[in-house]
Amino acid sequence: MNDQLPTAFDQALAAAVRAPSPHNTQPWRFVVDGDAVEVWLDRDRVLAVADPAAREARVSCGAAVLNLVITLRVNGLGARVRILPGAALPDLLAVIGLDGTRRSTEQDRGLAEAVHRRHTNRRPFADRAVPAVARARLKSAALSEGGQLEFLDASGRYPKVAALVRRAESLQAEDPAFRAESAFWTGRAAESPDGVPTVAFGPRYEIPGVVCHRASHTNPAVPSRAFEQDPLLAVVLTRDHGAAADVRAGMVMQRVLLTATAEGLAASFLSQPLEVHGIREQFLELFRGLGQVHALLRIGYGHATRMTARRPAAEVTAQRAEPDVPAV
């Protein structure tokens, strides 16, 4: 391995850990094996109540894969991705190997720059429509990674989805186990390397029933604010389903989020209907025929908010000690 590679890998891994994850749990581990990086699911950081099947955790790891690949590309390195979860090693999600050199594009550079600016925005968005050209770019971003982005305001699904978000939120609020899990990961100090600090919470909403952030992500010290009444909602889909599709969906979702950041847009997650048994089935049924839904996003124009911290890449990365022997 020549002298360029450690620097390129260091930058790529620093970008990988900037990926989003539920409650900023950061459910990933990386192993550098020669000219390749393995991405492993960290079971200790999977939300046992909200995400018992680790679907959201695998999506997060897929987002980390996309950040890593984009950063290698802007350093002039080609990257090939193998998505690998299987029966033998179900937590080995992907291997990213170097594939010669390549000239980075202006789009690559824009996305790589957005990696370190993208963050979840739980605050009110402006009542300003996202223009058709920006929507087209977001849809194109999803397609380029083999997925699909479906905006809900163009269909009759919007009120049904909004109702399921509210119902799931209500059921989670009544669940002591969910509340305890959420409390463990949220309300942390601003400098916390994981979890969601209180400073990243949104304000109380003035009008009940709006679709915005989780009630558990409300900062009582911030004056209440009016949220947009009809936020732009979109779902991330893939044609297939299962563990490999979750990883692929994370790459799709992250390219959408990075494209949104590059377009000056903000985004947050509405994961509640995917986390509650019974509600999840109703939610997925709404999109039967389109594909498997992996994420529900709220997109719009928002004011800058504080970014949450991440654990250093070195803390979650190991070197392969011997060939063909897993290091995690």
Automatic annotation (TrEMBL):
NCBIfam families: Rv3131_FMN_oxido (NF047509). GO terms for molecular function: oxidoreductase activity. It comes from Amycolatopsis carbonis. InterPro entries: Nitroreductase-like (IPR000415), Nitroreductase/BluB (IPR050627). SUPFAM superfamilies: FMN-dependent nitroreductase-like. This is Nitroreductase. It comes from the Bacteria. PANTHER family: NAD(P)H NITROREDUCTASE RV3131-RELATED, NADPH NITROREDUCTASE.
